[in-house]
């Protein structure tokens, strides 16, 4: 099984496990989110260590160690991206499984179990036609100030959505043109989405235009831009203007 096949298989299996935990009726709300996180994480961690024992591993739900810093290949996973949405029985949550190689998000899969879909780096599809009025996916509860401001400047429309993976995949799937985030994230929030988005031909960077670099000692990654390539230059310029203005 190739790395990409493994990533997709693990994301899909973890998604099925999460749906079963939710369908059990034994948990609700925050308790459901916690149970889902723990169960999916246990599966993913054990499976990756069994299938790729020499690789490093970083998971949101496991204690981090410095061992991964000496590895060229590091799996970066988020068992439930959008725990709140999962606990509320919404569909805008995801499972992230990525492989960063020398710090680059090379391989990955994002499962959207609520929609029955898995998007992956080894099976990219063509980008659909862009909307005339650009749609920017933002947090449904805390839209980033930069995204709101950029939307106003370019005549864009804000689309509220849950998890980071769901937002990024909305751009991949042609449901939005731009995902601009500046409210703080960690490596596991964006590694798999960035890998999948890049494989589909989208622009992926920090909001200052610098590359996304993973497997850092400090896993905090406060911002990112995932968008259709034709919007990248304009959005980056607007963000720079906002910062200097």
From TrEMBL:
Q: Gene3D superfamilies annotated for this entry?
A: 3.40.190.80, Fructose-1,6-Bisphosphatase, subunit A, domain 1
What are the UniProt keywords, alphabetically?
Magnesium, Metal-binding
Q: Which Pfam families match?
A: Inositol_P
Q: Which SUPFAM superfamilies match?
A: Carbohydrate phosphatase
**Cofactors demanded by this protein:** Mg(2+)
Supply the InterPro entries for this chain: CysQ/Inositol_MonoPase (IPR050725), Inositol_monophosphatase-like (IPR000760)
- Give the domain of life: Bacteria
Keyword Magnesium among record annotations? yes
Q: Does the keyword Magnesium apply?
A: yes
**Biological processes, Gene Ontology terms:** 3'-phosphoadenosine 5'-phosphosulfate metabolic process; sulfate assimilation
Q: Name one GO molecular function term.
A: 3'(2'),5'-bisphosphate nucleotidase activity
The record lists Mg(2+) as bound by: 60, 78, 81, 189
This chain belongs to which protein, by name?
Answer: 3'(2'),5'-bisphosphate nucleotidase CysQ
Supply the source organism for this entry: Aurantiacibacter rhizosphaerae
**Highest lineage ranks of the organism?**
Bacteria, Pseudomonadati, Pseudomonadota, Alphaproteobacteria, Sphingomonadales
């Amino acid at each position: 099984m190739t790395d990409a096949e493994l990533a997709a298989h693990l994301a899909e299996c973890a998604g099925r496990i999460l749906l079963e935990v939710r369908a059990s009726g034994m948990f609700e709300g925050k308790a459901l989110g916690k149970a889902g996180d723990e169960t999916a994480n246990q599966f993913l961690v054990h499976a990756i260590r069994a299938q790729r024992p020499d690789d490093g591993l970083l998971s949101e739900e496991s204690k981090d160690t410095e061992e991964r810093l000496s590895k060229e290949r590091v799996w970066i996973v988020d068992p439930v991206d959008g725990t709140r949405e999962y606990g509320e029985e919404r569909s805008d949550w995801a499972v992230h499984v990525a492989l960063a190689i020398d710090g680059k998000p090379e391989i990955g899969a994002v499962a959207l179990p609520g929609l029955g879909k898995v998007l992956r780096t080894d099976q990219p599809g063509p980008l659909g036609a862009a909307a005339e009025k650009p749609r920017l996916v933002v947090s449904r509860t805390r839209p980033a100030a930069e995204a709101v401001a950029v939307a106003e400047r370019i005549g864009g429309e804000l689309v509220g959505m849950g998890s980071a993976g769901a937002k990024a995949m909305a751009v991949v799937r042609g449901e939005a043109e731009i995902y601009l985030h500046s409210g703080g994230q960690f490596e596991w929030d964006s590694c798999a989405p960035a890998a999948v988005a890049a494989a589909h031909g989208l622009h992926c960077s920090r909001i200052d235009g610098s590359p996304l670099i993973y497997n850092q000692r400090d896993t905090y990654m406060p911002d990112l831009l995932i968008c259709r390539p034709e919007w990248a230059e304009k959005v980056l310029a607007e963000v720079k203007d906002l910062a200097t203005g």
